[in-house]
Amino acid sequence: MAYRVLGRAGPPQPRRARRLLFAFTLSLSCTYLCYSLLCCCDDLGQSRLLGAPRCLRGPGAGGQKLLQESRPCDPSGPTPGEPGAPSAPAAGAPSPRLSGSNHSGSPKLGTKRLPQALIVGVKKGGTRAVLEFIRVHPDVRALGTEPHFFDRNYGRGLDWYRSLMPRTLESQITLEKTPSYFVTQEAPRRIFNMSRDTKLIVVVRNPVTRAISDYTQTLSKKPDIPTFEGLSFRNRTLGLVDVSWNAIRIGMYALHLESWLRYFPLAQIHFVSGERLITDPAGEMGRVQDFLGIKRLITDKHFYFNKTKGFPCLKKTESSLLPRCLGKSKGRTHVQIDPEVIDQLREFYRPYNIKFYETVGQDFRWE
Length: 367
Hints:
Elements: H1 14-39, H2 64-69, E1 111-112, E2 117-121, H3 127-134, E3 140-142, H4 158-164, E4 167-168, E5 173-177, H5 187-194, E6 199-204, H6 207-221, H7 228-232, E7 233-235, E8 240-241, H8 246-249, H9 253-261, E9 269-273, H10 274-279, H11 281-292, E10 303-306, E11 311-314, H12 339-360
Parallel strand pairs: 2-5, 2-6, 3-5, 6-9
Antiparallel strand pairs: 1-4, 7-8, 10-11
Main location: Golgi
Subcellular location: Golgi apparatus membrane
GO cellular component, one term: Golgi membrane
């Protein structure tokens, strides 16, 4: 018996239902595929097309289930060592900053190191000149100020001391100068404990001339101090020199050297003549360069003699428009001293000088 359908359709046939379901699924899949091409993240968590990290979001409620079954973008990307982790940064990714870079992104020049060489003395001997001259060398980086670590600031520790140093490359030498180290009893042991391989430079000068220069400097700061003669002697008539006065005691070089030789061999100590530093600066600095184990680059062409100051100065360099001369505190005119006082002090220093010559194997001709 045949039926006629009037006004409403009967239940859909199974084949037609399957076709409708397939069409709906296909449409949804295409929508998902197009969305994925636009928004899918690569292994670094960045959108290949949009250039920014994104995570997948469903196009609608109907597609939520399919999106949940897919792996969402991970903004942090895979960690190193995980499967799929990149071996090199992706194109367009920012390069990592070097750990040793400054704020501008360029590498910092070197590392702060403890000094391998020290100018340890002596005051008013010519230490500042040696420091300024040797700083011209490209293989030397020197601290410009006197840190007084091994005499006054030892309690601050080596890390504090290191922090003061200039940055150096592996091929460069770090150097500092503090002339009072030479007469500080504890300095040799403290420097030895830092490094037994430290190279030591001592700039010496005729002890009588050195004492007068020392007094002249003090007088410029304290004009009310006693006379040079009054400070030099406990009893001038008897020729008793006051060795407690620092200006006199510093010049007893042989006495102070004994403390250093308990810790350092003579081969690790280089003595610069303050007098020859004035008459032959290139020669003295050549020997300093040899001692430090660097090439002789500081030569005669670097110096000219300043008649006003009475000592050599550095000629202008490519980085400086003017010559470099020591400051106004250097080259002061010495106070006039009674020649008899000078003779008495020469006699006092004579045995110390002779012992010093014999110990270091060099005659400085101060007599």
